[in-house]
Design a protein that fits this description.
Radius of gyration: 15 Å
Shape: flat
Helix content: 10-25%
Strand content: 35-45%
Number of strands: 10
Number of helices: 1
Number of domains: 1
Order of helices and strands: EEHEEEEEEEE
Length: about 110
């Protein structure tokens, strides 16, 4: 299966759908022809910059495709080529560009 995230003009994920992995070009073209919008491929096995082994569910040392699986509300960053979750509202958070996850900065 291939997963695709639809993004809006601000690169915010609106929805995620599944397509046929055997024909990515046709699957992508079907999305464009039938649903319109802008679609970016995402991987269900990408977690905090790492790849999850789908057979064992363990996080590997391999890089995750586009850092994170795209969920509704995530933002696609073109420079990092990554899906980034929304920033937490409470606390002082900084984006770790290696994992594309938010890390809380503890004040001394």
């Amino acid at each position: 299966m291939a997963h695709w995230a639809e993004i809006d003009e601000s690169n915010i994920v609106l929805r995620v759908t599944v397509g046929d992995n055997n024909s990515l070009d046709e699957g992508y073209q079907w999305l464009i022809d039938n649903l319109g919008g802008t679609w970016i491929k995402t991987s269900y096995n990408a977690v905090n910059g790492k790849r999850r082994n789908p057979e064992t569910n363990e996080i590997t040392d391999e890089p995750g495709f586009r850092k994170n699986f795209a969920y509704i509300g995530y933002k696609y960053d073109e420079e990092l080529d990554a899906f980034i979750p929304p920033k937490p509202t409470e606390g002082n958070w900084e984006l770790d560009e290696t994992t594309c996850s938010w890390v809380e900065q503890v004040q001394p």
